[in-house]
User: What shape does this take?
Amino acid sequence: MQRLKNRHFLLSDVLLVPVAIYTSFVLRLETFDLATYWLACAHFCVAAIIVTPLVFRAFGIYRRYWRYASFEEVLLLSGATSLAMGVTAIVLALLDLVTPVIATVPRSIPFIVPPIAASLVSIPRLLVRIGAARERRRRATDRPAPVLIMGAGDAASIIVREIQRNPRLGMEVVGLLDDDPAKRGLRLHGVEVLGDRHAIPALTARHKIRQVIIAMPGAPGKAVRDIMHICEAAGVAVRIMPGVHELIDGTISVSKLRNIQIEDLLRRAPVQTDTAAVRALVAGRRVLVTGGGGSIGSELCRQLLRFGPSHLIVLGHGENSVFEVCNELARLANAQLDQSPCIVSVIADIRDLERLRAVFETHAPDLVFHAAAHKHVPLMEEHPVEAVSNNIVGTRNLLDVALETGVERFVMISSDKAVNPTSVMGATKRVAEMLVLDAARVSGRPYVAVRFGNVLGSRGSVVLTFKRQIAAGGPVTVTHPEMRRYFMTIPEAVQLVLQASVLGRTGEIFMLDMGEPVKVVDLARDMIRLSGLEVGRDIDICFTGMRPGEKLFEELFARGEEYQPTAHSKIFVAAGASNSIPPALRTSVAALERTARANLDADVRRMLRAIVPEYCPPPVPVTNETPSSVPLRSLQPAHVLIESRP
Assistant: This one.
């Protein structure tokens, strides 16, 4: 049966269609003796034998690969068969009006024939499909590993079907799990929903499960964390489908399954993106992204690319990162887009006003996303002059050139550290926000700032630091056991930035919903466990003391600001933010710039406090030797605590 070609199916159709017609007459007349209607039956058979192959050919039935037939092919075959029988009946009815030679067919026959004919012509094709599936299973060299799939939705349906179709994957789906009680006992592609996540230990023991697959791209991190802990206790491996933010192309397949990463444990409910509004803003426009070679800037470029800008201008100071990002964007554009935008790489320093003027005059951007900044808190405490020159002076230069050249919309990436700042970095970002609001007030244009917290995987992220420390064998260093931070993934943050850019009207500060704060020490424990290690036995966690400029908890609300909801549930606007702009802001910034050029660190800090009254740097602690400079055993408990057990 597996060697049948489409020409063989043509022959079977010619033989089986008359059988279906004869069966229909028998059912209609309730007798095998067609003495009265044999001529009508014969005429219908002859006409159907001529019409059916023609209709099947028009529908591409004879061009299908029936070894891999799916429900789509069955529907197509049924529709084509019904149409063929209908056309046959119409042809015979017309001929009956023209010539008395054609016998009259009972009016109910055209309604009885299609389902019978569709069933009969499907049989040889389905036999080929079944035979091919059995052959693939027979050729599988090893016994497939029994797996459970957590989730019984769309993603699980795709994964189950792919595993069933491809025995070479070496997996057999024993059952599905879902926390929705209403799904208990239901079947998906023949696989039953056996229970919820708490059934994993019992099912693992009963069926010798080797792996649990989490097929829930939209599951929050809390659920993923709980399932991971249950699987760890049951001694079964677990893999996961990436989150919605990683599945930008929407493709779900077994090949995308991977081990659980820290991002999965911190993921949140999917962001509902108003893609139409973003496309209306970006499509056909010239868009410039500063800091385009950085983690946030490069992701901004990737997501902006999907909305069809006419020009995407990637501006950065580091030539290597800009080069790599532009090459990646070119590959993405060629692979995914029908009309590729013009991708322009620009090497420039935003502190150079004249260079920026030349860039803007040459490329005339309509929209500017400003992601370039110095963000490393301890480093900026040591080098406040650099923080001022880049974060404040650079932002002012961009705004001046944007106003001069008529840039329609300006979006600055800010930080939650700008709220009641305790660090130089936070204070400089707060001044940059003030400059954006001042430019919006003067011009009446939608120039806005968007605040959010830590992003996983960005340069300087604590996650990357922990990964390096774990790879080196530890210890993993945490500054304080009560240190808490807000986290979100880079793609999620950028999606919300794009949404905020659409919401901006005159001059606002938007705050992204960062979810619940996470203890950094819990993050460290989870990363150690995900690496297959145990805290205290394989790797220690050391508490090294808070660094200059740090605070235990990041704040969401600044004094004098009232956060109000927007049209997007994950974005808030800081009402009253413009009220805190000093009347002589530009004069103060100019004086601050002169002080920075003179490399007067103490005066820079003093002037920052004058511009940002809520800036309150903590006392600089006495520094001690760190784990990188002394043996672990010699660390003093008064300054560094060693966590030696989970």
About this structure: The radius of gyration is 34 Å.
